[in-house]
Amino acid sequence: MKLMYILTGALLLFGGGFALYALLNGKNPDHLNQLLDDYNYVIGTQTVGSKYQFTDETMLVETAKEIKNMGSNLLKFSMNPRYCTENYGLPKNDSIKSLLDLATMEPSVKKVLDMDFKYYHIWVYGFSQYTEEPEGEKRDTNQIKFIGGYPDEYANALYQELYDLTSYFLKKYNNSGKIFYLGHWEGDWHLRWHFDRTKPVDIQTLQGMKKWELVRQKAIDDAKRDISHENVEIYNYIEVNLVKIGMEEGAATVTNSVLEVVNPDYVSYSAYDTTNPYKSEEALTEGLHEGLDYIESFLQPKSGLPEGKRVWIGEYGSPTVHYSEEEQNERSVWSIKAGLKWGSPFILYWELYNNEIDKETGEQVGYWMIDDSGEKQKIWYTYQQFYEEARSFVNRYYLDHGDVPDFDTFRDKALEFNALN
């Protein structure tokens, strides 16, 4: 017995010994590895509209692989008619006329959906809603049709696209363990399509957006009702971004004017307005918690969902055009810790490769983990170290307790990780 302890201790010390340690202690190492691969480690990143790349792979596949290699089991990306333009520059296929076509006919989209990510956060916009933009231009209004009201023809077409996509995911990934969260980009900029936060909301557009969001939720719910499935989950989410003007000014926003009507499965908060203004960790934590609490106050209890918070941080970040690399990392750590303390189920950094170019200087804005020369930034190393510490903790916890830690146990421990301190 003493020899076994010495052997397993040495293996644990020098790496590669957890599976053998599990086996020697009567636990199934394959089962343990699957639990580790599937665990929600909370933090993640995303890939949309990157302005550079380094391999012969497509932009989407290259960035997905980079995210996986960093240690993440979560991929956030976009599925919409812009797949062949600013989103990923994939080859245009005129036969792709719906979200289902995109999922089944576009090779890079198929490839990343089949990769061994556990969690997928996907912006989904219907082809039936899209008006092609002039070459080289990006107009968000061209992918929504509820400005001034939402005609039934568009509502019905979007319902069918999302119903078909959800049905396909449920069939294709049945018993895969994958979890899909289908949502959209910053909803308050759809509601205020003119990007002027000082203007009052147009009432017809607000009513149109409510209908749009209800259609999205219903399509997913109906497909889940109709399609028999096991060990695969799909949820709807709404993303909000202008939260402070609702809290402080009483302005109409997606948070205070849409969430109560729809009661979505989840809410994603693109949290720049309660993270980036603050100059200290204490102020950022207080501001972010106020925002998250405010969003949560508009959700009603809902059956059929896992226990826990239903609001997450869908975007945060500090571009190097305004902050040094060290400050970018420090402020990211503040945001991660604040999110963990509140109980956010996901905290997603914007983003792996930068997607914005300064219009005046032509320079990269610096929303990145890996810069345009291929250099990994401090925040990349923070994430990688966090994943290593997180996986190690969950591993040890399982060996000691016979099960993985619950979410609160994990997040309490994560606050002590060296990566965040």
UniProtKB/TrEMBL annotation:
Among InterPro entries, the record links this protein to:
GH
Designated name of the protein: Glycoside hydrolase family 42 N-terminal domain-containing protein
